[in-house]
Specification:
By secondary structure, this protein is α+β, with helices and mostly antiparallel strands. It has 2 domains: about 120 residues, lpxc deacetylase, domain 1 (Ribosomal Protein S5, domain 2); about 180 residues, lpxc deacetylase, domain 1, CATH 3.30.1700.10. About 20% of the residues lie in helices and about 30% in strands. The chain is built from 7 helices and 20 strands. The strands form 5 sheets. Strands 11, 12, 13, 14, 15, 19 and 20 form a 7-stranded mixed beta sheet that branches. A 5-stranded mixed beta sheet has the order 2-3-9-4-5, covered by helices on one side.
């Protein structure tokens, strides 16, 4: 069955790119509505933007969805991951600016509010996207791939020269609240030199040591250090779940990423949907539904979220 929120949840923060204050309200929605964003500050054009892979355009550091009128919302991956990881299929997300609030650089605040509010089951059957054959994209030493699997699995590899990150690998079956417990509190990360350069060029003005893990060679500069010794690869998996949620339905397949990012995951979805023999939409059997990321999430899981 599909699910939505039991009531509206609200967030206030700043935008990653602008540093400007942002308010976001996530509302329950009817069955089969899907996930849509609404720009409440836009009144002279279509302000509804569907959260779907075909609406994703080129944007550094994040995923941005834009409608035919050119109205967009960026940094959608963390709230999309939270909704997918908590089993919410239908929601209207109102935001009063061009960005989702970055919060502390992960999905923890969103997840906590969703789980505490709770999900309401809806009288509509849930369909999923079953991966039937391998789909792969490669470029510049990076790779993203989808292969058949009974549920959603994520396998990610990263390799950075900075000793504070280095080479990391993690693979997880995303069922039974795995996202909430293992990934939701892992923050985005960047090098100090990169954030200094971006600030100097008017980029990532909302990025701080409090909403990202900032590293400098061997050192972690953010207060409190790392939440997990492999927080970097966990965040890449969080991003991957959010970007895969833009497929428009849960995916039954194994995602493998090697040095992959937002753009590559979007190219992977586009390549899969361009080849009808590589996937099919299926009504979820009880066994398949039981393996989806949001099934099995409990309030007790929040005790493990930073």
């Amino acid at each position: 069955m599909q699910a939505t929120l039991t009531q509206t949840i609200s967030f206030e923060g700043v935008g990653l790119h602008s540093g400007a204050p942002v308010r976001m309200d996530v509302h329950p929605a009817a069955a089969c509505f899907g996930i849509w964003f609404k720009r409440t500050d836009v009144t002279d054009a279509d302000n509804m933007i569907r959260a779907i892979y075909t609406a994703v355009g080129a944007k550094p550091l994040c995923s941005e969805v834009t409608n035919a009128a050119g109205v967009g919302v960026s940094t959608v991956e963390h709230i999309m991951a939270a909704l997918a990881g908590c089993g919410i299929h239908n929601a209207l997300i109102e935001v009063n600016g061009p960005e989702v609030p970055i919060m502390d650089g992960c999905s923890a605040d969103f997840v906590r509010a969703i789980v505490e509010t709770g999900a309401r089951k809806q009288a509509a059957r849930l369909h999923a996207i079953e991966v039937l054959s391998p789909v792969i994209v490669e470029e510049n030493g990076a790779m993203a791939m989808l292969t058949p699997a009974g549920g959603l699995e994520i396998d990610f590899h990263i390799d950075f020269s900075d000793a504070a990150i280095g080479r990391q690998h993690m693979a997880l079956d995303m069922r039974n609240g795995t996202f909430v417990r293992e990934l939701s509190d892992s923050r985005t990360f960047c090098r100090k030199a990169d954030i200094d350069t971006m600030h100097a060029n008017g980029l990532a003005l909302g990025g701080t040591y409090e909403n990202a893990v900032v590293i400098d060679g061997d050192d972690v500069l953010s207060p409190g250090g790392l939440r997990h010794k492999d927080e970097a690869v966990r965040h890449k998996m969080l991003d991957a779940l959010g970007d895969l949620a833009l497929a428009g339905a849960p995916i039954l397949g194994r995602y493998t990423g090697v040095k992959a990012g937002h753009a590559m995951t979007n190219k992977l979805l586009r390549k899969m949907f361009a080849n009808p023999s590589s996937y099919r939409f299926v009504p979820c059997t009880p066994e398949q539904a039981a393996r989806l990321p949001g099934v099995g999430v409990r309030k007790a899981d929040l005790a493990l979220v930073a």
